[in-house]
Design brief:
Layout: E1 6-8, E2 11-13, E3 18-19, H1 20-26, H2 32-40, E4 44-46, E5 49-50, E6 57-58, E7 65-67, E8 70-71, E9 80-85, H3 102-106, E10 114-115, E11 124-130, H4 133-140, E12 148-155, H5 160-168, E13 171-172, E14 175-176, E15 181-188, E16 194-201, H6 208-215, E17 220-228, E18 231-232, E19 241-243, H7 246-254
Length: 265
């Protein structure tokens, strides 16, 4: 049966072609959102014609897709890296203030890759980096319920009321955080009173754990992300990284949604 064509951005496109922002992301050019911005800025061409519509599609096997005049490769092997981010690094590809970035830890031989989510400058721990834009979007979108586990040292000794507030959610920027799993560990009295908390979140707002703890009166002294979905730090030390195994990639892509804690705890 002959496949019916339709016009997208003034071009005939076969059914089954792929959205251009997805092709750019899969080729390791940029994240899906950044790829959309490239299209809107008129920096992407397909067979010599500038494409500005986000719904535009192309056939990677037949079409010549270029960004800033440079043709992209659509047969790029995806890469998945697990990094133990140390403190003192920003989770971006570049920094206008000249601070070291997580890209500096990987070296040039890795090629174009970008972080999935963020860990702030003063935090450390597990950071996934990939060229797979579709997986990155899946892992960062709240509807997929990807749990992130943090080991946190806070000032003081949070009582039951403070821990209960963290579990139920606190208001940040006028919006309540989702229910979290919070487990209280030992309190240490040397060099000031501190307490260890293990916090599991299912959303990723900016500096969320730090702001939640500050909101209940117990500022964070140190913060380490130890797990993301099925991934853990294992034997990695700060600054070290490794490629994910095929089994780990499969687990990430096929994992069922986690069960969120109830907000009425």
């Amino acid at each position: 049966m002959r496949r019916e064509k339709r016009k997208v951005d003034g071009r005939d496109v076969e059914p089954g072609s792929v959205r251009i922002q997805k092709l750019l992301s899969s080729a390791g050019i940029a994240s899906r959102r950044a790829s959309e911005q490239l299209i809107l800025e008129g920096r992407v061409t397909v067979n010599g014609a500038v494409v500005r519509e986000l719904g535009s599609k192309a056939d990677p096997a037949r079409d010549a897709i270029r960004v800033d005049g440079r043709r992209i490769r659509t047969d790029v092997r995806q890469r998945y890296i697990l990094l133990y981010k140390p403190r003192g690094y920003v989770t971006t590809r570049s920094d206008p203030e000249g601070r070291p970035t997580v890209i500096d830890l990987l070296g040039r031989q890795v090629g174009y890759i970008y972080p999935v989510g963020r860990l702030d400058y003063d935090s450390e721990g597990l950071l996934l980096m990939t060229t797979d834009g579709a997986l990155a979007e899946q892992l960062t979108h709240p509807r997929h319920d990807v749990e992130r586990v943090y080991e946190v040292i806070v000032a003081g000794a949070p009582d039951d009321a403070a821990v209960g507030k963290l579990r139920r959610g606190v208001y940040l920027d006028g919006r309540r955080t989702s229910a979290a799993d919070v487990r209280r560990g030992p309190t240490v009295k040397s060099d000031g009173v501190t307490t260890k908390l293990t916090v599991t979140l299912f959303e990723g707002r900016n500096r969320q754990v730090r702001r939640m703890c500050q909101a209940v009166g117990h500022p964070v002294r140190s913060l380490t992300r130890v797990r993301m979905g099925p991934l853990t730090l294992g034997r990695l030390r700060p600054g070290e990284w490794r490629d994910l195994t095929a089994a780990e990639v499969t687990a990430l892509k096929g994992r069922p949604a986690a069960r969120r804690p109830r907000s009425d705890r």
